[in-house]
Amino acid sequence: MNQFEFQDRVDGSINDYRDGAIDGAEFREAIVDTLLEAALPVLQPITLEEVEAKRSAWARATFPGTTPLSSLRHLEREIEEIEADIVAGKDPTVEYADALSMLLDSAGQAGIGPRALIDAMHAKLLINQTRDWTQNPDGSYAHIEPQPSC
Q: Where is the dATP/dGTP diphosphohydrolase MazZ domain (predicted)?
């Protein structure tokens, strides 16, 4: 995105907000989306562990009363925002990032770091690959519990 495309997108969002075509939350989202699209190509690559260390340090200083459970309550709200974006046909990437942040926050406060989560995720994948699965009425899947042998 060049400077003129960036300015056109920002001006368009400002005009939409001023004209009442979008509300304050939609205006913020449009500006953030524009900034991210402009900035992402020039940002240095960062690992999950690096970004989580930065996010965690900021969160501890900004939200000192947070607990693993309060972060899970926030995660529930982020999931609702993801669902709303999907239903509305909007790009949910930023909401997924918010949800991941809340999950990592809860885990971190419980003493579980990103590397431990990645390792556990890999181990769980190996277990899940050996299971049989069934589709639930809501479209999700659940593993079939093995029946005890007599």
A: 55-140
Spatial contact of 128 and 143, defined as CB atoms under 8 Å apart: yes
Helix/strand/coil (H/E/C) assignment for every residue in 115-148: HHHHHHHHHHHHHHCCCCEEECCCCCEEECCCCC
Token pair listed for 55: 């996010």
Please classify residue 102 by burial: count the beta carbons closer than 10 Å to its beta carbon, then call 0-12 exposed, 13-18 middle and 19+ buried: buried
- Tens of pLDDT along 71-117? 999 999 999 999 999 999 999 999 999 999 999 999 999 999 999 99
- Please report, for the chain, the start and end positions of each structural domain, with discontinuous segments joined by +: 1-43, 46-133
**Tens digit of each residue's pLDDT (9 = 90 or more) over 26-64:** 999 999 888 888 887 777 778 899 999 999 999 999 999
